[in-house]
Amino acid sequence: MDASPFLSAVVGLAGVAVGGLSSFATTWLTQLSVAREKRRQVEAGKHEKLFSEFVIEASRLYADALSHEKDNIADLVKLYSLIGRMRLICSTPVIEAAEETMRSIIETYAAPNRTLLELRSVAQDGGLDPLVEFDGAARKELQRIWHSTRL
């Protein structure tokens, strides 16, 4: 009995199996990569939206605090709510920077109203932006998300 036809059939079937397996593995890895990138985009989108809302609200409150003294903290509720949402999804440095921004706004509300001349002096000294630390922490967080390979 000649084993040559049998061997040819086995080698042919092995080739088909390897080809099918490699095609399956390639498709699976591609789908895994696409799903990972989609999760990364969703995660970054959540963070970007939350950071944007925080910056808008903190800027509004800080501008108001520069010219108004208040004992009522009701205006700070939305900002506090945004920080609470950050606690669910953000890293510790981002949360700490957001809390520091809120403290700065509260201190500004407690301080006497500032005149335009005083504001100009503070601006020239670089002390008019309470969001600097938060901006840096948020930027690092977004970079971490975009460069993360394990989402």
Q: How would you explain this protein's 3D organization?
A:
Helix 1 packs antiparallel against helix 2 and helix 2 runs antiparallel to helix 3 (92-110). The protein starts with a helix and ends with a helix. It is an all-alpha fold and 151 residues long. It is rod-shaped, with a radius of gyration of 28 Å. It contains five helices and no strands. It has helices at 4-67, 77-89, 92-110, 116-124, 132-147. The model has no long low-confidence stretch (mean pLDDT 85). The chain has one domain (41-147).
How are the SSEs ordered, and which strands pair?
Layout: H1 4-67, H2 77-89, H3 92-110, H4 116-124, H5 132-147
Helix pairs in contact: 1-2, 1-3, 1-5, 2-3, 3-5
Throw out a few tags for this protein.
single chain, 151 residues, mainly alpha, 5 helices
Class inferred from helices and paired strands:
mainly alpha
Number of helices: 5
Strand content: under 5%
The main sheet comes to: none
Separation of termini? Answer: 58 Å
Task: Supply Rg.
Answer: 28 Å
Count of discrete domains: 1
How would you describe the shape? rod-shaped
Detail the poorly predicted runs: none
Q: What is the residue-averaged pLDDT?
A: 85
In percent, how helical is the residue content? over 70%
The arrangement of helices and strands along the chain is HHHHH
- Total strand count, please? 0
Question: What's this entry about, in short?
Answer:
The chain is an all-alpha fold and 151 residues long.
